[in-house]
Structures are given as structure tokens and as C-alpha cells.
Amino acid sequence: VLVVESGGGSVQPGGSLTLSCAASGFTFSTAPMSWYRQAPGKERELVAAITGAGDSTKYSDSVRGRSTISRDNAEHRMYLQMNNLKPEDTAVYYCYVHLTSLGDYWGQGTQVTVSS
Predict the structure, then answer these.
(1) What secondary structure letter does DSSP report for 29?
(2) For 54-76, how does the pLDDT look when each residue is reduced to its tens digit (9 = 90+)?
């Protein structure tokens, strides 16, 4: 099982980024997946989650209305589009999947920095 994030970077407040998570080693289309983030000195927190079929999503209050989680099951990829970024969105963003028979898997993270 492998999940690898990409797409982070440095942007100014109000900017946008789209994060991508490439997954392999499991049946992607049946696995709910999530994005988490961890800011310096803070605990890791759930940002957004999506069902295996992509027909249901949920968001944290901090990003709801500014972010969209999606997935492409044919490409084994999950995305997080973030708009109107704020300095408080600065964090390392992680892709996460829990597999019933195998356990929890995290990517290495991708840094998002929002600063003027």
C-alpha cells in the first residue's frame, strides 16, 4: 500500500492550490479516503473525507466552502482543491486511508505555505 501526495507549495493569501494523492496497492474504488493537515505545534486534524464511490464528502468547518475533495477511481487519485487560502491554512497536508484488513496508511505529506 502506498499513498503519495503532491501539489503543495507557497501561495499568497487568497490564492489556490490543488493537492493530489496517488494511491496503489489496494482496491482504490472501495476505500474511503481523507485529507489531514498538521500545522507547527498543533495536532493533526481532519480536513476532508470522501467515500469510495465519491458520492459523499465531508469537510472541517475551517475549510468548508473553500475546498473541494474529489477522486478519480480510474486513475487511483484523490484531490483537494483549495481556494481563498488563508495564512492559517499553512500546514503539512497528508493523504490517509484506513483499510479494514491492513490498517492505517499515511503519505509523507506535502507542505502548503500561505504567506504574503
Answers:
(1) G
(2) 999 999 999 999 999 999 999 99
- CA-derived radius of gyration, the chain: 13
Residue 42 φ then ψ, to 5°? -120, 165
For 99, residues 6+ apart whose C-beta sits below 8 A from its C-beta are 1, 26, 31, 105
Q: Which residues of 33-72 are buried (b: 16+ CB within 10 A; e: fewer)?
A: bbbbbeeeeeeeeebbbbeeebeeeebeeebeeebbbebe
Give every CB contact of residue 116 below 8 A, 6+ residues apart in sequence. Answer: 12, 13
List beta partners, residue 72. 77
Among 111, 97, 68, CA closest to 2: 97
Average pLDDT over residues 20-41: 96
Higher pLDDT, 61 or 102: 61
CB 79 within 8 A of CB 18: yes
